[in-house]
Every structure is written in structure tokens, then in C-alpha cells.
Amino acid sequence: MSGLIRSFVATANSAGTQFPLNNLPCGVFSDEKPPRCGMAIGDSILDVEALEAWGFLQFGGTLQTSDWTAFMALGPEAWSRLRRDVTALLAEGRENQDEVRPFLCPQEGAVLHMPFRVAEYTDFYASRHHATNVGTMFRGAENALPPNWMHMPIGYNGRASSVVISGTDVRRPWGQVKGPDESAPRFAPSARFDIELELGAVVGLASDHPLSVAEADAAIFGYVLLNDWSARDIQAWEYQPLGPFQAKATATSISPWIVMSGALAPFRCDTPARGVPLPDHLRDAGPMLFDIDLEVSLAPQGKAGTVITRTNYSEMYYSAAQQLAHHTTCGCPMRTGDLLGSGTISGPQKENRGSLLELSWGGKEPLTLDTGEPRSFIEDGDRLTLRGAATGDGYCVGFGSCTGRVLPAVKDPYARNET
Description:
eight-stranded mixed β-sheet; 16% helix; 9 helices; alpha+beta; SH3 type barrels; 27% strand; five-stranded antiparallel β-sheet
């Protein structure tokens, strides 16, 4: 694994930064100027929209469209060239550094926006540890995994319209719920609101035919942190026979920075050993996962946060490339800007579980926060924050954070003037 690539931006060389020159994640930011494309470098944001307008970068005007969607559609060759070109512009020892410095904007005070237009959203159920934990809770250990689980990545079509950027407050949802001792369902706010720690794969290259795993891997522009907010009590009543619907439609939060696949290449690793061979069209085409450390913290309103779980993306059973390849097998077209959620990322130990449903074992084993407060599920005012980074030789490639605060349910969801 190569070491730190040094930049003339001093903060990009510091031990604590998530944004060295090795990373160059893509986002959209605004300050006194309107939203535009930028790349994080140290404590700054490089204004690539202005760089292209001035001729330092040449990508057919796609960097001047206020988000990354048009650029993503150019494909892997352009993605690699952008990383090379920007690395050369920001490299330590570069001559005429003063030509580039005016295009560096401070991250502090900048507002971050949705980095691409989400075309469609699909969420998966691809961690064996998570699926086993959930299945054990509801069906017993002997029937934890459904018969199809070891043969293909299980998923459902979610709502692109409810994907929101990190920092967006999330309102506790109403829905139809029914307890085991209730004779009929009732319409009420969710009392078992939860998070799911995930990684989201951003599809850059559109397709209209089945993709091999290798082709799918090449079509992924990059990755974001993703929180699949989940109303467990609504889900428990509605999910049979067609799976999640309203329980997952409230919001899906993503981090504002897309870490490009090229930045993660040094951290590739293999999927776990498989006792059941996959069909040929889903078999691994080399190392398909990444060694990315992940954590979630929970902070009650006005109080410090507690890290409630730590895990690693390498624990997944199916990679994003396998998920994308499976998604296309029926001929389903994929669009630039499609977002694929990995599914909850859980590891083998209790402290590695990626949802409160697992961490509290369905509410039977509440957590104790550092503040002394118990938690089985999210309470109003709680802020959940996801973080992730891959660690190299003297540097790390980070995603920033993905955060959201839960607001109380409205008193009447049909009262249009209620805030």
C-alpha cells in the first residue's frame, strides 16, 4: 500500500485529516457564492467548477452543472483523469502554486449540499451477521437465514425522493402498528425508530443490459456513508408478504462527500469464505470489498455522544459490485445517480452490530449510554452520527460524517399547517 501523497496544502498532510491528496472526495458546497462542485483537501475545498471555467480542468463543462451527475456519466476514464489532474495541481513542490491557491475555499463556514441527483434507490440485506441476528430474533437460530439468502443479495426498491443530505433533521414517522397482544392495528407514531449503519454505492455509468460483477464494479463512481432510518414496529406489521415499505420511506441520510472508487483501491479486500458457492454470474471478480472502519455515536439532545458500535465494511457477505450485477440480471436499466445501500453492516461481536434492533436485541437488552441513560431505540432529540475511514500507511481516506437528529412526531400528520 502506497503512503501519503503530499500536497502544498499543509493541512492535507496532517496526521488527523480525513482528506489527504490520496482521497479527493467529491461534494457540492456553497459560501457567498451559489452551490458548485468541489473536492475536499485538508481543511479546504477545491472549487473545481471555477477551475474548469478557467481552463485548468477540461471535462466538457460537466463540472459546471452544480452537482456531479453529468461528470459521473463520463465514465471511469474521466474519473481517473480527474484524480490525476487534481493531484498534479495540488502536489507538493508544484510550480506556480499561486495559480491554484485562489481556488481553495475554507471548509469552515461552507454549506454542503446533495452531491448528485439520486435517480433510484435500492437497499440490500447483505451482511450475514446482521441477517443472522435479525433472523434469530424473529424465527429462531435454526431458521435465521431464509433459503435464498446464501445464493443472491436480497434487496428492495426504496424511495429516492426521501434521500437527504447529512445534517437534515428527521421527523419521527406515523404508521400502522400492531403489537402481539393487540387484536387490531392502530395508527400511531413509531415507538421503535432505528438506524442502520450502511455504505452507499453511487452508480456512475448507466447500463441497459445485465452486467458481470467486474463490469458492475467498474460502473461504481464512489461510496457514501448511509443511514437507513427504519421504523421497526411499522416494519413488523407491514413486511409480509412483500417486505419493507413505509417503515423505510421516512428518510435515508447520506454523507455529503462521495469517496471515489479510485481512492479506495488500496484498501480492497476479499469477501468472506463461502460454504455455498455462488452462481457463476455472481462470483467474485477479485477483491470486491474495502477495509473501512465504521462507527456510530448517539448523542441525547444537549449532551455528549456515546459510540454505540464499531464495525468494518469488510464484514459484508456481498459486495456492492455483486449487488449491482444482481440488480441488472433481469435486464433492469441502471441510471447515472442510482444509489445502492449495502444493508446494515454488522460484525461478529455484540459491539459490532450496526442497528439498535440488534444492539438491544429487540429492546430486551437496553444499552447504557455514557450519560447513564438507557436506549433500546431512538428517542426524540437524539442525534445519530455515522463515521468511516480507511487507514493507509501514514494517512487515512475518510468520508466525513453522516448525521441526523430525530424530531418528535407531529401531533396530527394531516394538519397541513403544523410545523
